[in-house]
């Protein structure tokens, strides 16, 4: 037990907060499919539930667990990571200024740059690993949001969360962190000063490549958060109850999965760091990585299950190596039990910060020796 008899996060996750169903005494939270709820005879809704686009009881357990693991006040699950992330920006007002990173999940950057124009948001894109660039970009009083992702897709640039929070707050802005890759197992952004944490729950939180979902966790239940909650209900980017149930089931094994994937990624990064067919391994766990010092400070227990490798011989050599893998799966996405590999520039297209020779690797739970041997043969065969 932790201090104050509060169970550790691993315990909360494994036991889904210790929930026992009051009716059946079942130790697995039930799945609720109702889209509408009974109104009391006196015309009130004392249960607090009215309609399935506002809320669903199946969300309660997943949201409570997410808030507990991230150390936040409240959490909301969404239909996807994109639905969650875009709600953070849509809760802003036309004219607000936001600062976002050059290296971030590409579809969100794409949406932000297109949507921002229509909504009247002013967006500045900076290299978030350069705090002086962030400091120069914020406009005190006008900047309402600083968005960061750490480690960031697909080159795993690390941003100093505590320093970014300080800069954002000094300018009167919120700090939102896409913590999809770090997960609460390795980083707790709210404890470092962040206001909002976002997850593509499609990835590690669910962990089995069978649910598309998103989540937001907030430090404060303030007016801004109320607007975010309204956006989910009004725009309807809600998670299906079965997906919410699966998500909670997935989160019960979050800690051992992330720990194992991190260990595997570290072993693979170390193994290939000086490989003759590899130009560069990008992984914040490597001592020579530009983000290592900050990662060491803000990540506990590992550096995550994601890394990228740059193949000598350029784009054609990278695509050819990807074509030869037998155990790794050639597919996009990340954070599942099976290891995935992809030529990232092909996914992101024009404007991508992914070098053309880069393969992105999501390390799963297979035997690391099999993963290393498969990559070795894919690199060797010519
Ligand atoms: C870091 C990161 N953020 C956000 C997203 C978007 O999440 P989703 O695909 O669940 O909408 C992704 C998806 O790949 C991601 O990798």
Q: Could you write a compact summary of the structure shown?
A:
The chain is 37% helix and 15% strand. The chain is of the alpha/beta class.
Tally of helical runs: 14
Strand order of the largest sheet: 1-7-6-5-4-2-3
Approximate strand percentage:
15-25%
Instruction: Identify the overall geometry.
Output: globular
Rg is 21 Å
Total DSSP E strands: 12
Q: If you had to describe this structure to a student in words, what would you say it looks like?
A:
This protein is of the alpha/beta class and 382 residues long. The chain has 14 helices and 12 strands. The strands form 2 sheets. Strands 1-7-6-5-4-2-3 form a 7-stranded mixed sheet, with helices on both faces. It has a 5-stranded mixed sheet with strand order 8-9-12-11-10. Strand 5, helix 7 (183-186) and strand 6 (196-200) form a beta-alpha-beta unit. Helix 2 runs parallel beside helix 9 (241-251) and helix 3 packs parallel to helix 4. The longest helix is centred in the last third of the chain and has 19 residues, at 254-272. It is globular and about 75 Å long. The N and C termini lie far apart (55 Å). The model has no long low-confidence stretch (mean pLDDT 96). The structure holds pyridoxal-5'-phosphate.
């Amino acid at each position: 037990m932790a201090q104050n008899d509060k169970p550790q996060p691993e315990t909360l996750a494994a036991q889904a907060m210790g929930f026992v169903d009051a009716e059946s005494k079942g130790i697995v939270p039930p799945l609720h499919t109702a889209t509408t709820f009974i109104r009391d005879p006196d015309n009130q809704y004392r249960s607090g539930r009215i309609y399935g686009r506002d809320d669903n009881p199946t969300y309660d357990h997943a949201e409570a667990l997410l808030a507990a693991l991230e150390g936040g006040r409240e959490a909301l699950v969404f239909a996807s990571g994109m639905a969650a992330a875009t709600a953070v920006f849509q809760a802003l007002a036309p004219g607000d200024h936001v600062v976002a990173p050059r290296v971030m999940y590409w579809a969100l950057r794409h949406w932000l740059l297109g949507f921002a124009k229509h909504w009247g948001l002013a967006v500045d894109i900076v290299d978030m690993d350069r705090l002086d660039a962030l400091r120069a970009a914020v406009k005190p009083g006008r900047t309402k949001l600083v968005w960061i992702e750490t480690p960031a897709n697909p080159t795993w640039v690390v941003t100093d969360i505590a320093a970014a929070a300080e800069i954002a707050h000094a300018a009167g802005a919120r700090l939102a962190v896409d913590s999809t890759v770090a997960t609460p197992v390795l980083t707790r952004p709210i404890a470092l000063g962040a206001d909002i944490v976002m997850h593509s729950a499609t990835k590690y939180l669910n962990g089995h490549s069978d649910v598309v979902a998103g989540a937001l966790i907030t430090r404060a239940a303030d007016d801004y958060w109320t607007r975010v909650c309204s956006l989910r209900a009004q725009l309807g980017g809600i998670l299906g109850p079965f997906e919410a149930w699966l998500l909670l089931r997935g989160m019960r094994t979050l800690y051992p999965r992330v720990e194992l994937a991190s260990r595997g990624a570290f072993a693979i990064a170390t193994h290939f760091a000086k490989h003759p067919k590899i130009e560069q391994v990008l992984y914040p766990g490597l001592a020579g990585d530009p983000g290592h010092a900050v990662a060491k400070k803000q990540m506990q227990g590992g550096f995550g299950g994601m890394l990228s490798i740059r193949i000598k011989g350029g784009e054609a050599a990278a695509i050819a190596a990807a074509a030869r893998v037998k155990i790794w799966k050639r597919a996009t996405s990340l954070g599942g039990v099976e290891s995935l590999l992809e030529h990232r520039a092909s996914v992101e297209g024009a404007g991508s910060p992914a070098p053309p020779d880069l393969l992105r690797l999501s390390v799963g739970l297979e035997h690391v020796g099999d993963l290393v041997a498969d990559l070795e043969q894919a690199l060797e065969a010519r």
